[in-house]
Amino acid sequence: MKITIKKNDLLPVLAKVQGLTGRKTNLAITTNLLIKTTDSGISISATDLETGFEGVYPADVESQGSIAINSRKFYEIVRDFPSQEISLNEIENHWIEIGNEHVEYHIVGMNPDDFPEIPKIEEVEFFEIESNVLSKMIEKVVIVSGATDDKRAHIMGIYAERIIKDKQKIFRLVSTDGSRLSKVDCIYDKNYRLPEGPGVIIPKKGLVEVNKFLDAEGPVQVGFKDNSLIIIKDGETIIIRLLEGSFPEYTDIIVKSKKNNIYLDRQLFLMMLKRMSILSSEDYKGVIFNFTEDKLVITSTNPDIGESKEDMVIEFRGEPITVMFNPRFFIDTLNVLDDEKVLINIVNEEKPCLIEGEKDKTYLSVIMPMRI
Amino acid sequence: MILHIDMDAFYASVEQLDNPWLRGKCVIVGGTSNRGVVSAASYEARKFGVHSAMPIFQAKQKCSKGIFVPPRMERYKEISKKIMALLGEFTPLVEVVSIDEAYLDISASTLLHGDPEDIAMHIKRKIKESVNLTCSIGVAPIKFLAKIASDMNKPNGLTVILADDVPRFIDALPIQKVPGVGKKTFRQLQLMGINVLGDINKFPENTLLERLGKFGKRLQELAAGNDRSRVAPDSRHKSVSSERTLGEDTRDKPLLKRYLLKQAEEVAWHLRKSGCRARTITLKLKHADFRQVTRSITIATPTQSSKKIYRHAASLLDDYKPLKKIRLIGVGVSGLISREVPVQMDLFERRSEKDNGWTKVDQTMENITKKFGRDAIKRATFGDE
């Protein structure tokens, strides 16, 4: 294989695949990229055996072939390469020569035949979503993640479902860590052909990688088939193997109280919670929310450190409620909400609290209290 | 001054105390089958090279005259309680390390009870009078030296290291005697030419950190005669576990899970008794070739429920693919926090798990056990044992 490629064409993709090739797997070759010549340029593939990536890029192909090269080192070489044109030349025994007239690297490659095959999935029924919309959806659900050694599918993954109703169609992502839940919708017109299908669980890690590939604008194609999620954008394809398992029935935990709708200024509430979480520690994560007439008092007590207290004027007319929450959970949610005012809905000290934007109803956060 | 009190061959001595026929004989306390390990050996048996943690079959080879008796933990605990209560009369600063070992900080007690050596003599006499057993006591200005001192004149010994003697003692202290120096570290230290604790002073801090990590720093402090650890009374349990060597090596996962259920129940019982919840659950397996592995999981909501502990341990077992048969299985919990500490509630628990039934069962079993003893009630799965 002998090709010449432009640094500008290569660098963005090399930056984006580092997350995938940097992950430890039980195959050494997954730290490599597979580069193959095509009719009009090259294709670059990367995989962590769960998430696979493939993209095609323009290049001058002098002779056909394929190489497998260490992703990290290749990225560093290209990033600091002094000229636009970079030539790649495979010499014998998987040695790769990279350079121009002044610079020359000889890099030990691996056998490209050993590179794990990234499944080709055909006849997928795709639906379209704007890059920035999908990106924001992902940001809103990946804030909720469980302990790293909790291997249950519904904790490791994000539930994706398509809901077809009379008036509208919804593509929804839901995530939970067992104590809280984040739900975000992308709403389609009833006339849009949103392909039907069962709910699936997508690994969170894979979705975090997807987010790196999403640009500020432009549509992406999303489809589910053969136990995989397929996302296509401008000649780049990501395939994520879905998790096996079931997602808990979550709709009946979303119980709204008729009375206790409380509107709060997002920024002020966020700052208050940040101050109140200063005293929290591994053992004492909770702070107490005291809702009384037109007043919210938050107190935090940590026997090892001390106490703090802050109040805020709110509009509240219900029975007083005393409830303990992990303020971190609220902070995570308030950070991804866009509206200036947020609506919290609280039932009592044992039922989950609901948080959403004042206007934007596509995102809902559900937070379970702590037992005092 | 710190006192370290260590009962002499505790389990074996209690057996000899309760059964005069065993006195002066090689008593080895441990599992009675060939498959267990020695829990304690009387000094008579130690002469033959028998020591605790040695496999029983090996102890039998070394000491053909050995009399093997099964452990009676309840009895040992009963006596231990008496001893610890007695120690509490000298100072409230008693740190109970294990069933037969404790540290006392008597710095503030000397006016009342005399100088450290007198107090140590007094304690030895009291223990002898009260439970008719002997102990060895080490007296030193710092904790780790007190522990080393108690081991220097066993059995029935008393060793005092005075503050003025500390530097000389440290300079000559064989490095393998320092708590925390195991086989591997010992080899590493020998390679560095460190044979006594005093040799540590020849190395700069950087080198020690580089070669030995955090432990290097600790050794440097010890070598300088600094031991920052204090006598910590009422030190809560850091972990609770239950394990068992099986009657026969097996790969039978359903059978192994039945052991886990029983062990989870025992661990949960201890947790409830001490008012704790656990954050981490660990499965321990020993293979037929004695190779040991542990697998653990940290859960979001700390628990004291036998069902949860069982469920997590069983799922760790499900995920583990043993290459050899299993000879020992156990479950342990750590990351203990007080029941008083607020706990995050689970979003889905109430509907999906029906845990309440189990909590009730746990509590009822506990009440029955309290009234009628440990064997009065058991889970049905174990009826056939």
For the termini of chain A, the CA-CA separation is 67 Å
Overall pLDDT score of chain B: 86
* CATH topology call of the largest domain in chain A: DNA Polymerase III, Chain A, domain 2
- Average pLDDT, all residues of chain A: 93
Rg of chain B, alpha carbons: 23 Å
| Helix residue percentage of chain B | 40-55%
What string, H for helix and E for strand, traces the elements of chain B in order?
A: EHEEHHEHEEHHEHEHHHHEHEEHEEHH
Task: Provide the gyration radius of chain A in Å.
Answer: 25 Å
- Envelope shape of chain A: elongated
Protein structure class of chain A:
alpha+beta
Poorly predicted runs of chain A are none
The CATH architecture of the largest domain in chain B comes to 2-Layer Sandwich
DSSP E strands of chain A, number: 26
Shape of chain B: globular
Distance between the termini of chain B: 51 Å
* Biggest interface pair, counts: A-B, 30 and 18 residues
Whole-number count of domains of chain A: 3
Q: How many structurally independent domains of chain B?
A: 4
Strand order of the largest sheet of chain B: 5-6-1-7-8
Number of strands of chain B: 13
Task: Describe the model.
Chain A has 372 residues and is of the alpha+beta class. Chain A folds into 3 domains: 113 residues, DNA Polymerase III, Chain A, domain 2 (Roll); 125 residues, DNA Polymerase III, subunit A, domain 2 (DNA Polymerase III, Chain A, domain 2, Roll), CATH 3.10.150; 113 residues, DNA Polymerase III, subunit A, domain 2 (DNA Polymerase III, Chain A, domain 2), CATH 3.10.150.10. In chain A, the strands form 4 sheets. Chain A has an 8-stranded antiparallel sheet with strand order 6-2-3-4-17-16-15-10. In chain A, strands 14-11-12-13-25-24-23-18 form an 8-stranded antiparallel sheet. Chain A is elongated and about 80 Å long. The model of chain A has no long low-confidence stretch (mean pLDDT 93). Chain B is an alpha+beta fold and 385 residues long. Chain B folds into 4 domains: 99 residues, 2-Layer Sandwich (Alpha-Beta Plaits), CATH 3.30.70; 62 residues, MutS, DNA mismatch repair protein, domain I, CATH 3.40.1170; 55 residues, DNA polymerase, domain 1 (Orthogonal Bundle), CATH 1.10.150; 133 residues, 2-Layer Sandwich (Dna Ligase, domain 1), CATH 3.30.1490. Chain B contains 15 helices and 13 strands. In chain B, the strands form 3 sheets. Chain B has a 5-stranded mixed sheet with strand order 5-6-1-7-8. In chain B, helix 4 packs antiparallel against helix 6, helix 10 crosses helix 11 and helix 12 packs antiparallel against helix 13. The longest helix of chain B is centred in the C-terminal third of the chain and has 21 residues. Chains A and B meet through strand 26 of A and strand 11 and strand 13 of B. Strand 26 of chain A pairs antiparallel with strand 13 of chain B, so a sheet runs across the interface.
